[in-house]
From TrEMBL:
Gene3D superfamilies in UniProt: 1.10.8.60, Homeodomain-like, P-loop containing nucleotide triphosphate hydrolases
CDD domains linked: AAA
Keyword Nuclease appears in the UniProt entry: no
Superkingdom of the organism of origin: Bacteria
Protein name: Transcriptional regulatory protein ZraR
Keyword Transcription regulation part of the UniProt annotation: yes
All residue ranges annotated as the Sigma-54 factor interaction domain in the record: 26-255
Length: 331
């Protein structure tokens, strides 16, 4: 396989883009990713809110970290919170903090995420999963730049930069009445969209080389040769899990290879075109509904019927997936 060392090196050592660590490298030489880099450099010196959109696995948190690392707040805290992982009943306490004795189990005063991130950058990942109740409180914090802990009346002033991200279309959620329009406008002063890997396949060889070097160094193994057929298969595959899926694929191939060469047999059967790849480049003309049905069916097969995982890859909530499964008779 061609190493693509020149383009790989130029991206990793992009002199414009400061990163907190080598683990936070953003890779890409495609025109769409160069536009992302340009937007990062334009917005980083400001305190404007940024909304990063893109499918799961595209690297939204890396972009948020790059914005922070190139901002005037770089020496202060970057705090990332996945809104989908927060329990609704405790979410308010986690975000805004609470006073001792404010509710059952509040044995001591706790600082919320906003206070912990004060003077730095607060990254709200998957902000589309917040309930309307929490959205209203978040809006108030952004507007007033102050927070009140649960069980307290005192206000704490905030000097904070807020970056949010979503793998869902917040515009569609607004139309559906599931996301506040005023909050959407507050969060999306500067929107940055990260394209899926299937739309920037020229970056795939660079990722392959980067992940080979990363994992071989970690495992203290020599970098294997990669057969041309492997690159061709990876270029044709749709990568529904995006860069995260490609990273795991390379790690798996390094572990399971029988010799110093990575061959097609070292790849997951889902990735090989001979074993049921989703036909993104098919000559068959399909309606949008037919394409959606085929793709959902493909993802369900790929995840072995695990609906939660399938919904995550598809970028929709499990309830919506259930409705579509019933609609297309895929159960």
């Amino acid at each position: 396989m061609e190493r693509h060392s020149d383009s790989y090196t130029s991206v990793v050592h992009d002199k414009r883009l400061r990163m907190d660590s080598l683990q936070d490298i953003i890779i890409g030489n495609s025109p769409s990713m160069k536009a992302v880099f340009d937007n990062i450099m334009k917005v980083a010196p400001t305190d404007s809110t940024v909304l990063i959109t893109g499918e799961s696995g595209t690297g939204k948190e890396l972009v948020a970290r790059a914005i922070h690392a190139n901002s005037n707040r770089r020496d202060n805290k970057f705090l990332a919170v996945d809104c989908s992982s927060l329990v609704e009943t405790l979410l308010e306490s986690e975000l805004f903090g609470h006073e001792k004795g404010s509710f059952t189990g509040a044995l001591q005063t706790k600082y919320g995420f906003f206070e912990l991130a004060n003077n730095g950058t607060f990254f709200l990942d998957e902000v589309g999963n917040l309930s309307l109740h929490t959205q209203s409180k978040l809006l108030r914090v952004i507007q007033n730049r102050e927070v009140v802990r649960v069980g307290d009346h005192r206000k704490t002033k905030l000097d904070i930069r807020i970056i949010s991200a979503s793998n869902k279309s917040l515009e569609e959620l607004v139309m559906a009445g599931e996301f506040r329009q005023d909050l959407y406008y507050r969060l999306s002063v500067v929107p940055i969209h990260i394209p899926p890997l299937r739309e920037r396949k020229e970056d795939i060889p660079i990722f392959i080389q980067y992940f080979l070097e990363k994992f071989c160094k970690k495992m203290k193994r020599p970098i294997p040769e990669t057969r041309t057929e492997v690159l061709e298969i990876m270029q044709q595959y749709a990568w529904p899990g995006n860069v995260r899926e490609l990273e795991h694929t390379i790690e798996r191939a390094i572990i399971l290879k029988d010799n110093d060469v990575i061959c097609a047999r070292d790849l997951s059967s889902f990735i090989s075109q001979k074993h049921g790849e989703f036909p993104m480049d098919s000559d068959e003309l399909l309606s949008l509904e037919e394409m959606e049905k085929k793709y959902i069916s493909f993802i369900l097969r790929r995840t072995r019927g695990k609906k939660a995982k399938a919904a995550e890859i598809l970028g929709i909530n499990p309830k919506t997936l259930g409705i579509k499964i019933k609609k297309y008779g895929l159960s």
